[in-house]
Amino acid sequence: MKKHPVTKRGNVRSTHFRKSAATIIAAAGAAVLLSVPAPANASTDMHAAATASASNPCKSKHYSKVAYNFWIGPSKMPLRCGTKTWGYNHIVERGRWSTSFKNKISDTLFNGYERTPGVYYRYKVGTGCSSKPPRKNFKVVVNKGPLGGKPGGLTPQGIITATVEYTTPAIAAASANAGAKC
Questions:
Q1: 98 to each of 26, 128, 143, how far by Cα in Å?
Q2: For residue 139, which of 102, 104, 93 has the smallest C-alpha distance?
Q3: Which of 38-52, 67-81, 117-131 has the lowest mean pLDDT?
């Protein structure tokens, strides 16, 4: 038995309607997704698994691997994965690591000054009398020698630690203790 042409056309119409409705619903869903703000911690660039591995460059890596490179003048200073006592893992374990912290390390090494060998500060400690509170300073400690102190090892070992340090002007602190007015 042959199908009637109207029945065949009806099937085409219903299929067309289903496809059109699906397209409209999909477009509406996309519009809703675009108009709903994403949470502040949501990543739109990568999947969650890729984000987790990208956020920790030292996951399952040897302690000597370089997580990041920073510049001290024309020289590179690596931040190696390290251990619990030095390097990237040391900084992360103490809850200090963030993009802001990374930028402070970079700024301190590139624009700061070396107060003692291997100890860099972003700002110079003030001198003279001051009623201002202690200055918030950023300190980065580096080892320019070989990793583990062994000749012929990976040189330089790199960044040991970085931290915020509060400093007070030397004269103001001394005069405050003596009770003298500035």
A1: 38, 34, 22
A2: 104
A3: 38-52
